[in-house]
Write a structure and sequence with these properties.
Order of helices and strands: HEHEEEE
Strand content: 15-25%
Pfam families: DDE_Tnp_1_7
Helix content: 10-25%
Oligomer: single chain
Organism: Eumeta variegata (Bagworm moth)
Radius of gyration: 15 Å
Number of strands: 5
Domain PiggyBac transposable element-derived protein: 5-114
Protein name: PiggyBac transposable element-derived protein domain-containing protein
Strand order of the largest sheet: 1-2-5-4-3
Length: 122
C-alpha cells in the first residue's frame, strides 16, 4: 500500500474532478505513485472517463465496471449471459480503452487501458 484516505462522509475532499466521486478518489490517490504504475480498482470506482484520464497520466488502469457506466453501451453489443459458455470472453476496443466481458457463473465486465484478451500493452 502506498497511500490511503479515510472516507468521512460528504465533507471528505478528494480534489477537484468533474468525473464523479469514485474516479476523483482514484485520481487523488494516484498522485502518490510513479508514472507507469498499474492501478486496479473495483466497479464502484471504475468509469471509462477514469480509464482515459489515467492513460493521460501515464498510469495503467484496470477495473471491474458496471454496465451502466459504459458510455454508448447501446452500440456495444455484448452477448447475453445465457448465450455465453463458462470461460468465454468477448472484447471491444476503443483506444485507449478495452472492455472485456468474461463469463464465469455470472458475467464480469472489465475496463482497462493496458490489457485485454490477448496481449498486454505494458
Amino acid at each position: 500500500m502506498l497511500d490511503f484516505a479515510i472516507y468521512e462522509g460528504a465533507k471528505t475532499m478528494f480534489g477537484e474532478s468533474n468525473l464523479g466521486l469514485g474516479p476523483s478518489v482514484i485520481l487523488s490517490l494516484a498522485k502518490s505513485i510513479p508514472p507507469g504504475s498499474c492501478v486496479y480498482h473495483d466497479r464502484y470506482f471504475t468509469t471509462v472517463p477514469l480509464i482515459e484520464e489515467m492513460e493521460k497520466l501515464n498510469l495503467h488502469s484496470t477495473g471491474t465496471i458496471m454496465q451502466n457506466r459504459i458510455p454508448d453501451r447501446a452500440t456495444i453489443k455484448f452477448k447475453k449471459d445465457s448465450a455465453m459458455r463458462r470461460g468465454e470472453c468477448q472484447q471491444f476496443v476503443c483506444e485507449p480503452t478495452v472492455l472485456v466481458k468474461w463469463k464465469d457463473n455470472k458475467s464480469v465486465l472489465l475496463a482497462s487501458n493496458c490489457t485485454g484478451l490477448v496481449t498486454p500493452r505494458l
